[in-house]
Write a structure and sequence with these properties.
Radius of gyration: 16 Å
Distance between the termini: 44 Å
CATH architecture: Sandwich
Number of strands: 9
CATH superfamily: Jelly Rolls
Shape: globular
CATH class: Mainly Beta
Helix content: 40-55%
Order of helices and strands: HEHHEEEEEEHEEHH
Strand order of the largest sheet: 1-2-9-4-7
Largest sheet: 5 strands, antiparallel
Structural class: alpha+beta
CATH topology: Jelly Rolls
Strand content: 25-35%
């Protein structure tokens, strides 16, 4: 991780493995995620070389609202909560997500501070892709980088459509 603020947060996570000895296990983690279901094995293998898997104990903050973002998070197992602070400093849970879901993807795109806090609800395994590793992967494997960006764009589009629908419902009440 490059940002000091997120370094302190990721210190709470336990690295599960890295390098060639962990590559096959990492590939199996990735191929089980909906985002990568249409990726072929060489793409999964290339992606496995640039991500890290971590264990998060219940209550562990994976990233915090307002911190400078430097990675996205794929939930492999367990559940996480997404929360935002309201105008009075109270935290409100806005979503809970389980295995196969991705959060923090905006950090790879815009580099802006985190828009929400992500916390492990129970014991979770997460895979992190840092912005630096994503850029390296994109330089080495441009087609793979484009494929990942298109998946992120599709995810952001789905979330925007859902949020727009919720806003319309809210405004009509």
């Amino acid at each position: 991780m490059t940002e000091t603020r997120e370094n302190a947060i990721t210190d709470e996570l336990t690295l599960l493995g890295a390098g060639q000895s962990f590559e096959e296990e990492m590939c199996h983690m990735l191929e089980g995620a909906w985002m990568f279901q249409d990726f072929d094995w060489p793409e999964i293998l290339a992606l496995a070389k640039v991500v890290q898997a971590y264990a998060a104990a219940p209550g562990t903050v994976i990233f915090r609202e307002g911190a400078q973002g430097s990675y996205l998070c794929l939930v492999v197992s367990g559940r996480i909560a997404i929360s935002k602070e309201d105008g009075h400093g109270a935290s409100k849970e806005v979503a809970a997500m389980g295995a196969g879901k991705m959060v923090g993807e905006m950090a790879l795109i815009d580099g802006e501070p985190r828009s929400a806090t992500c916390t492990a609800l129970d014991a979770a395994t997460v895979v992190l892709l840092t912005k630096d590793n994503f850029q390296r992967m994109t330089q080495q494997y441009p087609a793979l980088g484009l494929k990942v960006v298109m998946k992120i764009a599709r995810l952001l589009s789905q979330r925007l459509r859902r949020t727009s629908g919720m806003l319309v419902d809210y405004l009509q009440d």
